[in-house]
Amino acid sequence: MLKRFFPALILLVCSCAVAEAAPLKALIITGQDRAHKWAETTPLLKRWLEETGLFSVDVLISPGYGGDFSKFNTEFSKYDVTVMNYGFGGDPWPQKVKKALDDYMKSGGGLVIYHAANNAFPKWKEYNEMIGLGGWGGRNEKDGPYIRWRDGKVVRDMTPGPGGSHGPQHEFVIEVRDAEHPITKGLPPKFMHSADELYNRLRGPAKNLTVLATAYSPKEKSGTGENEPILMTIKYGKGRVFHTAFGHGAKHLKSVAFIVTFQRGTEWAASGKVTQKVPADMPGADKPVLRK
Ligand code: ZN
């Protein structure tokens, strides 16, 4: 008797769960970057999130350089996660918007720092704590340590020097350093990304920062000879930050190594968990895989 009713009961529970699973709401903020084509990368960021079936995505485009920011604002609390694609050399935001992002994060918001968003706002103290590590904009030892991965652990390196550099684009292997985090759990231990900028010498406050994955920066490619942090999480107040340091342009965002880690990291920043399965086209360490 019990056996006969059990499947029906399970079906009932499952359909309720699906009906209640409201999509996560994401906001991409973009509109300024003096070194990156944000108008080309933003549609791909939006597409990868929408393809998970988990997100509805809004895009907020800032005024252009030197523009009037008096009407630039958003209601962050409407969103489970904010994705930053506002980068190198971007104009500072008005104080009220800065405070709104800070309040949102301290009260448990989600934030994704994508590539050159870690170049933005070198003088905004709270933002630098949210991103953990940043580059360019005059960053140096006054901003915090370099984060090194040596002998299986994080080393905070206070050697003086500039923050942020990269050599010519090359393929690189991403190596998982924390395989128990929801973002990385179940991923191959090493997977190849297509030829891209590999940021090195990032530095910042690095408070409450967890290195999820690194990539080796070869000296012969103007690198450091170090394993550079490339996927990170930062705890900021009650908020969750996922920081992905690669993906310079639209073609780099078609690499499955980027897509999968971005989709999983954004779900985690939004909800604290990852429900996505690792796709069949996830690369291993031998060669990158690109989607159309
Ligand atoms: Zn770049």
Which helices and strands appear, and what pairs or packs with what?
Elements: H1 2-20, E1 24-30, H2 38-51, E2 55-61, E3 81-85, H3 95-106, E4 110-114, H4 125-131, E5 146-150, E6 153-157, E7 170-176, E8 190-196, E9 209-217, E10 226-236, E11 239-244, H5 256-271
Parallel strand pairs: 1-2, 1-3, 3-4, 4-11
Antiparallel strand pairs: 5-6, 7-8, 7-9, 9-10, 10-11
Bound molecules: zinc ion (ZN).
Overview of this protein structure:
The protein is α/β, with parallel strands linked by helices and 292 residues long. The chain has a single domain, classed as Class I glutamine amidotransferase (GATase) domain (Rossmann fold), CATH 3.40.50.880. 23% of the residues lie in helices and 25% in strands. The chain is built from 5 helices and 11 strands, in the order αβαββαβαβββββββα. A 9-stranded mixed beta sheet has the order 2-1-3-4-11-10-9-7-8, sandwiched between helices. Strands 5-6 form a two-stranded antiparallel ribbon. The structure holds zinc ion. The site of zinc ion has 5 residues, from loops.
